[in-house]
Design a protein that fits this description.
102 residues, alpha/beta
């Protein structure tokens, strides 16, 4: 089963590794990050993780102010999304918390 997380980031470098590690533990298999206007090393970190095959990282395609919507429109065309069984759209300050029955 392929579970893809899609998110937009700006200056989130200090929390990225924790966020990715947590979600890998709960079976998220693929990560698609869009970055824009980062000044804290987020881009370098994501590029390094991408070269190791741990995430996919793209610059945000937005030309206006709708950064998330433009990124999500673009994401919908990519195999990491179209071939996923589940797609989860989130911010990196949100952690998926699943509760199953009693």
């Amino acid at each position: 089963m392929r579970i893809t997380a899609v998110t937009c980031v700006k200056d989130e470098g200090s929390v990225l590794l924790e966020w990715i590690a947590y979600h890998r533990l709960i079976w998220v298999t693929d990560f698609l990050f869009y970055s824009n206007d980062c000044t804290d090393g987020t881009v370098a970190l994501l590029d390094t993780l991408a070269t190791r095959g741990l995430v996919q990282h793209l610059p945000n395609p937005a030309e206006g102010r709708s950064y998330q919507m433009e990124a999500l429109k673009h994401a919908a065309t990519l195999p990491v999304v179209t071939q996923a069984d589940w797609v989860w759209i989130s911010d990196v300050d949100e952690f998926l918390n699943i509760h199953i029955g009693d």
